[in-house]
Amino acid sequence: MSERRRKFWGWGYEGDGISDSEAAAVASRLAAAFGADAVRDRQPPRLEDLDLRAPRVAPPLALAEVFTDAPHERASHAYGKSYRDLARAWRGEAPNPPDLVALPAGEDDIVRVLEWAANERVAVVPYGGGSSVVGGVEPEVGDEYRGAVSLDLRRLDRVLDVDTESRAALIEAGVYGPRLEAELRPHDLTLRHFPQSFEFSSLGGWIATRSGGHYATLYAHIDEFVESLRVVTPRGVLETRRLPASGAGPSPERLFCGSEGTLGVITQAWMRLQDRPRARAGATVSFPDFLAGARGVRAVAQAGLHPANCRLIDPVEALLAGAGDGSSALLILAFESPGHDVAPWLEAALELCREQGGTVEPPRERSGADDDRAGAWRRTFLRMPYVYERVVGFGMVNGTFETAITWDRFADFHEGVSSELAKRTNEICGGAIVSVRFTYVYPDGPAPYYTVTAPARDGSELAQWDELKAAVSDAIVGLGGTITHHHAVGREHRPWYEQEAAPLFQEALRGAKRELDPAGILNPGVLIDP
Ligand SMILES: Cc1cc2nc3c(=O)[nH]c(=O)nc-3n(C[C@H](O)[C@H](O)[C@H](O)COP(=O)(O)OP(=O)(O)OC[C@H]3O[C@@H](n4cnc5c(N)ncnc54)[C@H](O)[C@@H]3O)c2cc1C
User: Cα 403 from chain centroid?
Assistant: First the structure.
């Protein structure tokens, strides 16, 4: 049976996506917002129309079976899934395709690829699911290299060992979310880490980018689950010790969490697991506006209740998701546990919300198990990557800004970012739909996530997005937020990361890079200025 191919230009497998009638409904919503002329009718890009330059390097004979230069593989590894990536794919542009794609079958192949690349002055870009939205997997490595290789770990996709006593598993880095969870299910265990990109992103990618899962409190980033790591660096293989915790110096695992493929290739990790949840309770609370909702969320986040979901969505997002009528902000609250009844936890959280002016909504009529407000929001959330690829095709600028800020500065910060977004989208695009939600909340602050959809001028969409991205990113960092809460730095966020991170820390990171990757072949341009 032939393997299903991923789309090189969008989300998921070839042939998968929203239906024609769903696409027509999206197009008519966009036309209602921006006028029919703003919506373009384009067919998805075809591989044969892509401008793919010829490979500049050939694989050595000894590694011939590890490499491929098949056009579909090269095109699929030419970029990630950010707005810039999709917009360029729709325009048939792939300015930085890898010359070769390596598909190692195991760690030995990775060692040999790195040796060859260091000797030949070829850059190596580690690749998990390719869902980076920050230019993390695009081989844009500059002219100092003879070529660039995308090192795809998809063949390293097994759960190798499960320690049910300690509740941990040894897992290969290239496994995507669904397979990982399917292999843990017979043990009644779960990693319980569900980023929106779960279907097509990998364990190694999650660790390398410090990804954030769905669960809105307590365990947000993957870091908390990493017990130990195995990493192939150009200097050799490094393995950390399996321990529940250690106070022996700075954590070696944390050096690689967020290293974005610049220090080594993560090949395996022992991951902490959890029992599968059995008890659940949830409710939806409405608030007159987003700031009122934020007060309710702060009260819940600081009460030590740890809801599994604590997703505040503004009236615009509530309307777009079919979860509300656009007149109020909604807080989707849910508690889960493997055993104990969580109803008292939910009741305590609802009481805190009522004290802050929230109204607990009566459950909406259900036609199926899921047909309530939270269900409507969740279905929209999971379909979103497929909708997003079509929205770009309709000629819209469609991007996100995600950040975090402490509660004491949140109200001013949100006001500043929202007004910058309104002003700049008006100037640059002539209007936009802007929505905001909290993706995660902590006792000391929220992680707001702004989504922008705006009409673009044919041919100028990248320039429009770059201008908007720069202005809003300046505002986010200028107002004291972080350039990224969970999407990572990559190439796109590096200018703001350099403003945000302490200069001496950046110097220390460069020192680690020099030690582990002396020839500088690993993902040049990402995270660290080469
Ligand atoms: C629709 C959509 C939804 C998303 N939702 C979320 C979300 O909910 N939460 C979230 O945190 N992010 C989200 N993202 C961003 C992205 O999915 C995450 O950054 C994810 O962790 C990347 O995993 P990946 O396997 O696709 O990595 P890739 O995109 O393949 O790589 C990302 C970076 O990690 C490096 N890397 C990959 N594998 C390894 C390895 N084994 N060793 C060393 N370096 C490696 C790469 O070189 C690159 O720098 C979303 C993206 C999209 C397109």
Answer: 13
- pLDDT at 390 (0 to 100): 93
Check residue 370 and give its pLDDT: 45
CA of 128 to the centre of ligand 1 (A): 7
Helix axes of 461-478 and 407-429: crossing angle, nearest 10 degrees: 160
Confirm or reject: Cβ of 523 under 6 Å from ligand 1. Answer: yes
What is the identity of the amino acid at 482?
A: T
426-446 pLDDT, tens digit each: 999 999 999 999 999 999 999
Indicate the pTM of the whole model: 0.97
CA nearest 29: which of 374, 323, 453?
453
The dihedral formed by the CA atoms of 250, 251, 257 and 262, expressed in degrees to the nearest 10: 60
Length of the chain: 530
Mutate to test the pocket of ligand 1, among 81, 101, 111, 132 (most ligand atoms within 8 A of CB): 132
Max intra-chain CA distance, the chain:
70
Q: First vs last Cα of the chain: how many Å apart? A: 43
Cβ within 8 Å of residue 450, ≥6 positions away: 400, 401, 402, 417, 418, 421, 434, 435, 436, 472
Residue 264 alpha carbon, nearest atom of ligand 1: 43
198 CA from centroid of ligand 1 (Å)? 9
